[in-house]
Amino acid sequence: MSKVIIVGAGPAGATMAYLLARAGVDTTLLERETNFDRVFRGEAMMPLGLEALEQMGLGISQLPHRRIDSWDMHVANRLIFQVAEPQTELGSRAVCVLSQPAFLTHVTNLARQFPNFRLLQGATVRDLGMENGRFSHITATHNGQPFTQTADLIIGCDGRGSVVRTRANIKLNLLPESYDVLWFRFPAPAALRGQTSVYLMGSVRNTALAYNSHDNHMRYALLLPKGGYDRQRDWVDEMAEPAPSWLADHLQTVRSQISEPSKLNVIVGRAASWHKPGLLLLGDAAHPMSPIRAQGI
By the 8 A CB rule, do 187 and 38 touch? Predict the structure, then answer.
């Protein structure tokens, strides 16, 4: 039986592991974190992504999610236009926000039904090894204990800062990006419970995005110029500055319940090669993308 090691149990790694295990391949999925409840994980699902999940047999109907109702553009605190999402036309492929921890738990639980699948959480890959001109094994630690594991194929799904890509000496060709994103979470106003519009907000000083997620907590993304996070400031006031008045007032009301910011270091580029003998890169490890209108998970 062929042996595959997948590094990174994000959406790309988890779904690939499930498909390989279902096909009878001996599959080991390594994840650095000890659980899927990271502070922030992308949530948006676009129609083509939902279609791909359906083709894999991984529908999301039983998972925590909510369809997007509309896109509302605000400039200088004023609503400029509103575009409704075509939910009826798209059907099961309608744009939605999805709990990524729930999705990853669901996919890995499905994979666990196959005896040829193994998930190691708390596993950190340190290096790659070669034999006869091809990548043949990884060295890693699991819960602090070192180990080595061989494979016929090593798949790097370990994100924009991919250790697999770095250790394989594959160059990442970067595109210039001049911003980072700070994500915040806080209780949604009562008037928004059960509905989800995406609010795009811009002013001379700030650009931001917000939406009410599946758990009736809002997600708020504040775009910053590179290095902007290093300058200490009142983030709630910065969040309120481009927002419509109702949201600005709500931010002040729930000030004490707003999470600490989670910083996304925006990197956009493409690996010079996505593969070498015995090795493959997928997802952000191969092509880190901008979060602007990206797939989201």
Answer: no
Backbone angles phi, psi at 17, to 5 degrees: -60, -40
- 3-43+99-174+267-285 fold: FAD/NAD(P)-binding domain (3.50.50)
The yes/no answer on whether domain 179-264 falls in CATH 3.40.190.10 is no
Neighbours of 248 (CB within 10 A): 18
Region 208-212: what's the mean pLDDT?
Answer: 96
Q: What is the pTM of this model?
A: 0.93
| Rounded distance between C-alpha atoms, residue 289 and residue 173, angstroms | 12
Q: Which distant-in-sequence residues (6+ apart) come within 8 Å of 69 by Cβ? A: 84, 85, 87, 195, 196, 197
pLDDT value at position 179? 87
Looking at residue 184, what DSSP letter applies? E
The first and second tokens of residue 73, run together, are: 């553009």
Task: Give the DSSP letter of residue 288.
Answer: -
Specify the 3-state DSSP secondary structure of 125: strand
Which amino acid is present at 201? M
